[in-house]
Amino acid sequence: MTPQELRAFCLSFNAAVEDFPFSPEISVFKVRGKLFALSHLDARPLTVNLKCDPEDAIRLRAEHPGLIVPGWHMNKRHWNTVTADGDLPDQLVRELVEDSYDLVVAGLPRAERLRLDRS
Questions:
Q1: Distance CA 87, CA 64 (A)
Q2: Dist. CA 50–CA 39, nearest whole Å
Q3: DSSP β-bridge partners for residue 35
């Protein structure tokens, strides 16, 4: 997956926006103000921090050692750092991004979720 493909995919979700609260180099993708993906798109290898169910996070790290690791500078229980331009299939990376978005949306207040459904 290229940086452009990762950015486009993250922004394809309903109400997703790209922000730069930490520095101009760090893309933070949010839905309704909540982070679901974070990446330095110019870095090599290309990695992205993604929210993950804790049990799935452990399983994914075991299945893909070195390519999916505990989230860098994040809560290691709930976040993974995924190497997006390596040996992982692009489809798996897309699924992990989508899962992260869905987890964040599920944690939004009901009124916010309803607004997302209507837009």
A1: 9
A2: 9
A3: 30
Q: Which residues contact 16 (CB under 8 A, 6 or more apart)?
A: 10, 29, 30, 31, 36, 101
Report the DSSP beta bridge partners of residue 91: none
Does the pLDDT value for residue 86 go beyond 90?
no
For residues 49 and 72, is the Cβ–Cβ distance under 8 A?
Answer: yes
Structure confidence by residue, pLDDT tens digits, 33-84:
999 999 999 999 999 999 999 999 999 999 999 999 999 889 999 999 999 9
| 23 token code pair | 């520095």
CA triplet 20, 74, 60: central angle to 5 degrees?
A: 115
- Tell me the C-alpha distance between 1 and 30, whole Å: 20
